[in-house]
Specification:
316 residues; Rossmann fold; 6-stranded mixed beta sheet; two-stranded antiparallel sheet; 13 helices; 10 strands; globular; binds iron/sulfur cluster; binds zinc ion
């Protein structure tokens, strides 16, 4: 937030300076700017239309709540799903933020909040569950979230799933993929992953044109209460280091993050089938999981395997 500066658009007092756009905005013009950036992302990547049903993945953090708010404000039909991971101290607070937003803002606008509780299905919270199945917490968490979001989207007939990944997230991920030359991941890194296969929902990231700082400002200015703390499991994650490095570059040279990530997207769009998420070989091997019916290339899908291992571990 800044003092003594005027809005680039309307010349009233500005509340936020955006060096990467060489601009400063008052609250109203800043809201218009964020809505415009999201609208441009939706149109340029052909994410969804006004009559599509959207399922937003909400965590209680600034990005996902801002995304839900922006989509509802722009007149989209957006419901949300919250996955309660059962992390002591953190999950209760993040759940409360989501519930409060849903009750006070989303529900009066006709939107629904779905909730999935990991403990109910797996018999343990995410930390204990990961120990039981000898898998890193974040990888178990990622798999469960992907599975549950896809399941609800398919069962409840949503056209598309939207996540709150922002410019910082995508630029950090790109940096990690480039540093390790992860060709497979680079080919799949896109703000629009089409529903290339039967049983998988299309996934989009409408916030890829906005930074973390801009989304935090959006929530503060619009009185959206979000959980400020990162998930305690994120401590020391590589992504945080990449974000720090990119922030240093951004301070020295505003616009670096967007040139890096948007430039990558431009180059990618010049190549055919930029969004293809699976190879033809994977498509041919895909069949419904005999236990739960969701698509998988293995005998039994990884989620059902995880639940089975967790149950054996509890019995022992
Ligand atoms: S930090 Fe790890 S455990 Fe926490 S929400 Fe992210 S992926 Fe899940
Ligand atoms: Zn203004
Ligand atoms: Zn299954």
């Amino acid at each position: 937030m800044i003092a003594m500066m005027n809005c680039t658009k309307c010349k009233t007092k500005a509340v936020l300076k955006l060096p990467r756009h060489n601009a400063a905005f008052c609250k109203e013009c800043f809201n218009n700017f964020t809505h415009d950036q999201v609208g441009r992302a939706i149109r340029s990547e052909d994410m969804f239309r006004k009559d599509d049903r959207i399922l937003v993945a909400v965590s209680g953090g600034k990005d996902s709540l801002a995304l839900w708010d922006i989509l509802l404000t722009l007149g989209y039909k957006a419901d949300a799903l919250y996955v309660n991971l059962g992390i002591a101290g953190y999950s209760d607070r993040s759940h409360e933020n989501v519930r409060r937003y849903a009750e006070t803002i989303a529900s009066p606008r006709g939107a629904t909040l779905h909730t999935h509780t990991v403990e109910q299905d797996a018999g343990a919270g995410i930390k204990e569950l990961s120990l039981m199945v000898h898998r890193p917490t974040c990888s178990t968490c990622g798999m469960i979230k992907r599975y549950q979001f896809n399941r609800i989207a398919i069962e409840q007939d949503y056209d598309v799933m939207a996540t709150g990944h922002n410019l910082d997230d995508e630029a950090a991920r790109l940096l990690g993929n480039v540093l390790h030359w992860q060709d497979d991941y680079l080919a799949k890194q896109s703000p629009n992953l089409p529903a290339s296969l039967e049983g998988f929902t299309k996934k989009v990231k409408p916030l890829y044109r906005l930074t973390e700082r801009e989304l935090a400002a959006y929530c503060v200015l619009n009185r959206i209460d979000y959980i400020v703390d990162e998930c305690p499991m994120a401590q020391g994650a590589r992504t945080l280091l990449y974000k720090e490095v990119l922030n240093r570059l951004e301070t020295e040279s505003p616009g670096t993050k967007q040139y890096f990530y948007w430039g990558f997207l431009e180059k990618q769009s010049q190549q055919a089938s930029a969004g293809a998420s699976m190879t033809e070989k994977d498509q041919a091997r895909l069949h419904p999981c005999p236990t739960c019916g969701q698509p998988t290339t293995a005998d039994i899908c990884s989620y059902c395997k995880l639940i089975a291992r967790a149950k054996t571990s509890i019995i022992r």
